[in-house]
Amino acid sequence: METFEVLAKKKRREWKKRTIFISFGAVLLAGGLAFLIWLGLSFLSTQQYNQLEDYYYRRTVIAFPNMQRDNARITSASHLKGTYQANLIKDIDGIPVKYEEIEANFSVMNWQHDLLADVVLPSSVEQDRTEMAYSYKSHQKAALFFNPKASYNPEDIIRKPAQEFPYLADMKGQLVEVAISFDKQYTLAELEEKLPKNLKINWYWIGSVSDLNTSNQAVRHLFGWTPRKQWLEPSYEEFYSLLEGFSQSEEAKEMGQEELAEDVKAHLASDGKLGKATFGGVILTGKAENFAGLEDQDWIFASSIGAAIPNQPYYQLDVE
Asked: Where is the Sigma factor regulator C-terminal domain (predicted)?
């Protein structure tokens, strides 16, 4: 018969084993739970990044005049947050030129687009007549669009429609981007008769049916279509589909600009038919001397020079 002392030792050993087992199980459970939480937070962070990437993909298709993303990457990344960076590249007659750099943050809970890469600032608010603007970060000249229905007053940020064709005569030997605002809306067929063949058509602005002063709009709110010469209809169908999606989104409802929403709605009335769609402006690029024939045309309301670079003999231009 076992003595009380022997029984007590057995009990203590059993409790010790049980305690070790429970402790080990608790550690495993806690470790597994922590791993699952880590996986969940990483998944949420990845979702936020994907939404940010999708935002810039969609927005550069329906807005951002003559700008495409390049070298998109994640920097300063952890499993819970990161920074999304990309270059905004302009196409100047087939030559890529850097405009601005996007730097947007995302985390487990949300993402934020880069507001500073979107806005333009007037050259000087103290000038009597301000008709030029520059990008916020790198202070590059912005190509502006002007609504012929808008009023331009001394108290406005941009006080006068730009008329910058005369400057091109002194820019020989350069490749230039020019935003042209029309006196009214035109169809693609009408514009094919008006626009010169020795300049590249980079981007069509949908224009405005309201009296909105569009000259100081953020580039994410300048809506328009990038024509793909070999895929003209498909590229317009993609643009139309994404613009329609934007018009029904929460962002459009929270935009706070009824006139801009009205402009989008008016363009969507084309029902996705390119021949029926009308446009209020265009971005043309090419040799500065090739713009000479456009000066003093009565169907042009305003002309605003954007990016310009020296032409080089080794450049392979899209349009000579």
From this structure: 171-306
